[in-house]
UniProtKB/TrEMBL annotation:
Upper classification of the organism: Eukaryota, Fungi, Fungi incertae sedis, Microsporidia, Unikaryonidae
Domain of life: Eukaryota
Pfam families documented for this protein: Diphthamide_syn
Protein name: Diphthamide synthase subunit DPH2
Organism this protein belongs to: Encephalitozoon hellem (Microsporidian parasite)
GO MF terms held by the record: 2-(3-amino-3-carboxypropyl)histidine synthase activity
Gene3D superfamilies the UniProt entry points to: Diphthamide synthesis DPH1/DPH2 domain 3
Signal peptide: none
Length: 319
């Protein structure tokens, strides 16, 4: 950390978010002590980042000190971050590569190609498995530091399998974790409703198991989040991304992108009112048997003698 640059950046600031991932927590004390010693008037908040530092996943602050790998899709506005110099051996090895290069923020955040031009002929310079996984699953990129390679085909196949699984479901909860994705969430909802599905929106920053398990009355949860983050929670209902919803209704295998969604709403039916009644009826039928029986007074547990034989009429039926 360049403490001289940090002092310069903190001039005139009143608050700072000190955001760190687990890998760089050993730097927290030195940075915190420096800020409190040199800038006692600055309120400093210690924050925890989950693998990747993304502004969509934390509270807003006037200034950030970032200790970790930053999200390449959503940059922070006013910040200072750590940097690391590659060894001479690694630099020589990198210069000999003819492929495209993508570096994480610790190594300068450099990319020789734009996001749309990245392909499998790309080396990702990072020691963050989470950062590399994003480029591996999406582009089949290579790891410069030879990080673990997952089973990409199994991963993509599981996405398509989930897409087929949710085709016939009726009730969807669409969760967006940031206002950045609100418009995409509304687009998905509109497409589902036009296909006679029931869909509602939820704005949740916290995707913990405790929060998700409380969502009732739905058959599927659609997560609209920063694509570098993977929701691995196992619930009794499927959890999918916009990609699976798109595949469910298009049946087309496109270039993988978690937040890809290009399905247009279907034309409105001439029998809108009947459609609405039908959807409501299906929900009521699904809720049958979920009520709890309750009776007033004491229950009669005595055994009584009844009449024998077969009844020939029901004179008091319905009375």
């Amino acid at each position: 950390m360049d403490f001289g640059l940090l002092d310069e950046k903190l001039r005139g600031k009143t608050e700072v978010g000190l955001l760190s991932t687990e890998e760089y927590k050993h730097m927290l004390r030195d940075v915190y002590d420096h800020i409190k010693g040199r800038h006692p008037h600055v309120d400093t908040f210690l924050l925890n980042g989950e693998g990747i530092l993304c502004p969509l996943k934390t509270k807003s602050f006037e200034f950030f000190v970032l200790l970790g790998v930053c999200c390449p899709l959503h940059p922070f506005e006013d910040f200072i971050s750590i940097s690391c110099c590659m060894s001479q051996e690694d630099m020589n090895r990198l210069e000999g590569k003819q492929e495209n290069i993508v570096c994480d923020s610790v190594y300068g955040g450099y990319s020789s190609k734009s996001e749309d031009e990245i392909d499998s002929n790309t080396f990702v310079v990072t020691k963050s498995q989470m950062f590399y996984d994003y480029y591996f699953y999406k582009y089949d990129a290579k790891s410069f530091y030879e990080l673990e390679k997952r089973d990409r085909m199994q991963y993509l196949s599981s996405k398509c399998n989930k897409g087929r699984m949710i085709q016939d479901l009726q009730i969807f909860a669409i969760i967006f974790t940031s206002r950045v994705y609100e418009e995409l969430a509304r687009t998905i909802r509109k497409a589902l409703i036009s296909r006679r599905k029931n869909a509602y929106l939820l704005f949740l920053k916290d995707l913990s198991y405790e929060r998700m398990i409380t969502i009732e009355g739905t058959e599927c949860i659609v997560i609209v989040d920063c694509p570098l983050f993977e929701c691995n929670l196992e619930l009794h209902i499927p959890i999918v991304t916009p990609f699976e919803v798109e595949y469910a209704f298009s049946g087309e295998w496109k270039r993988f992108d978690k937040n890809s969604f290009s399905i247009e709403p279907e034309p409105k039916s001439d029998c809108t009112e009947i459609d609405l009644v039908g959807r409501a009826g299906r929900i009521l039928l699904k809720s049958e048997g979920q009520n709890v029986p309750y009776c007033y007074g004491e229950e009669d547990m005595s055994i009584h003698n009844g009449e024998s034989g077969i009844p020939c009429r029901y004179d008091s039926e319905g009375i």
